[in-house]
Design a protein that fits this description.
CATH topology of the largest domain in chain B: Four Helix Bundle (Hemerythrin (Met), subunit A)
CATH class of chain A: Mainly Alpha
Distance between the termini of chain B: 63 Å
Oligomer: heterodimer
Number of domains of chain B: 3
Strand content of chain A: under 5%
Number of strands of chain A: 0
CATH architecture of chain A: Orthogonal Bundle
Order of helices and strands of chain B: HHHHHH
Structural class of chain A: mainly alpha
Shape of chain A: elongated
Radius of gyration of chain A: 17 Å
Number of helices of chain B: 6
CATH topology of chain A: Helix Hairpins
Distance between the termini of chain A: 54 Å
Radius of gyration of chain B: 21 Å
Number of helices of chain A: 3
Number of strands of chain B: 0
Structural class of chain B: mainly alpha
Helix content of chain B: over 70%
CATH superfamily of the largest domain in chain B: NADH-ubiquinone/plastoquinone oxidoreductase chain 6, subunit NuoJ
Order of helices and strands of chain A: HHH
Largest sheet of chain A: none
């Protein structure tokens, strides 16, 4: 089972779907960020499984995975700083209540 | 046989803790569940044969990102949040979207890759990856480092208390 492709694809699909439902349903900004991390991990797992299957574990897929990890780190840093700023300004991290731009 | 059992355990741990990370109520529990789930994904990379990426996953995701999220949650003063009712219409839309996504891609993967097995057991070595990073992918590598620098500076500037 560890040498067939389908379980890896199914697991990445589960991760992406759970992250998607979390982003759409949950209203806490920190939990939405956690769901984005789950989606990124599902994407990376999908990429690496298909890289091993169709490119024989080539180096290019691993390099793209390294780039995804670095971008996820940068994105998390900025998002946490923004969440901290929003919390200090509004005393609130509920996405439903941050509606000043909506008019 | 034994590796199959280990594989199924890892699979279930990742799926269950990802679900807990989405649906638990207190953010600190969500953060710890995400850390466990992501830590187990490093095990999946070991199964696939990417040892360096597994180490990178543990270092960056578990060692840095999860710790940063937990740090921010613990730094914020306790807010007494009363559990409020979610809008059932929005919840339904989110769940339907996610289930549709899952169903479409499940059928695609099942039809295309249901019985596929990996042909080789040997991946490209880490020295190949390093050589390509320094030659062919040198420009994206430099851009990534600039992005990380900008992210660090931006986080400091954003979170600094203005006076």
């Amino acid at each position: 089972m560890a040498f067939s492709l389908f379980p890896y694809l199914l697991l990445s699909l589960v991760l992406i779907s759970l992250g998607l439902v979390g982003i759409l349903v949950r209203r806490n900004l920190v939990i939405m960020l956690i769901c984005i991390e789950l989606v990124l991990n599902g994407v990376t797992l999908n990429l690496l499984a298909l890289n091993k299957f169709s490119a024989n574990g080539g180096a290019a897929g691993q390099i793209i995975a390294i780039f995804i990890v670095a971008l996820a780190a940068a994105e998390t840093t900025i998002a946490l700083a923004l969440i901290f700023l929003i919390f200090r300004h509004y005393k609130e991290i509920d996405a439903e209540k941050l509606t000043e731009l909506k008019g | 046989m034994f590796s199959d059992v280990i594989f199924i355990i890892f699979w279930l741990v990742i799926a269950v803790f990802a679900a807990l990370a989405v649906f638990l109520q207190k953010p600190i529990y969500n953060a710890f569940s995400m850390a466990i789930s992501i830590f187990s994904i490093a095990g999946m990379y070991i199964f696939l044969g990417y040892e360096f990426l597994a180490a990178l996953q543990v270092l960056v995701y578990v060692g840095a990102i999860s710790v940063a999220i937990i740090f921010v949650i613990m730094l914020s003063p306790p807010v007494t949040v009363k559990p409020k009712k979610l809008n059932p219409f929005k919840v339904m839309i989110g769940v339907i979207t996610s289930i549709t996504f899952f169903a479409v891609f499940f059928m695609l993967f099942y039809l295309k890759y249901a019985g596929s097995k990996f042909q080789n057991t040997q991946n490209a070595s880490i020295s190949d990856v390093g050589t390509l990073l320094a030659t062919k992918y040198a420009v994206p590598f430099e851009i990534i480092s600039v992005i990380l620098l900008v992210a660090i500076l931006g986080a400091i500037v954003l979170a600094k208390k203005e006076d």
